[in-house]
Amino acid sequence: MASSAGRALAIPRLFPKKTPLPWLKPGVFVGCLAPIPVIVWRGATGRLAADPVASILNQFGYLALTLLMASLLCTPLKIAGGWSWGVRLRRMLGLFAFFYASLHFLTYLIVDQSLNLRAVFDDVTKRNFILVGFLALVTLIPLAITSTNGMVRRMGFVRWKRLHRLAYVAGCLGALHFIWRVKVDLREPAIFASILAAGLVLRGFDTVRKRRRKRRSSRAGAAAR
């Protein structure tokens, strides 16, 4: 009786664990694109910071890192809470992270450095935070190229999955880039680093658990023979 009453009074979940959410992908897609017109409008009306180029660079970089962390959290959320809907967004979030990371770099290359490749080379080789940011972008390139279903079929799922573990490398490099860029107020970079660390711990725990389960199944199968 009590359990029936509990079910009757249960509040519907906004993000149920397994129910299809047809609005989710289009909504996230629009949400990921929304910052572009906002940044353009603020730039056109002179509402950016005193240094507009630095402001745009910071916003694109922040968006790239935020979306990359969001994509890396999709699998840990499934492991911890069983929310499989997040996995459907992982590829889109990763591609948008690459998109904003590319805009971040292109703004630096074209607007900030005026296509002065020598100055860019000097920055990359002499300034550590720019080097790790550049490496994070380079790491994302093969992931973006191989993000299609066709590439999964060509590579084979096991090889494809192994390659896409580089996303965690890109996340570590992106977080380090943010930490070295900020230098003083490390509260926000620490949040990103903590999220990344929590995701890595959950993934590691899940890997160990699956291996133990596979080992037990193998032993049970051998004993049954």
Walk me through what this model shows:
The structure is a single chain. The protein is mainly α and 225 residues long. The chain has one domain (23-204). It has 11 helices and no strands. It has helices at residues 2-9, 24-33, 35-44, 52-81, 90-112, 117-126, 128-145, 149-155, 157-163, 166-182, 187-224. Helix 4 (52-81) packs antiparallel against helix 5 (90-112), helix 6 (117-126) packs across helix 7 (128-145) and helix 10 packs antiparallel against helix 11. It is elongated.
Classify the helix fraction into a percent range.
over 70%
Please give the domain count.
1
> What's the shape?
elongated
- How far apart, in Å, are the first and last alpha carbons? 46 Å
Strand content: under 5%
| Strand segment tally | 0
Number of helices: 11
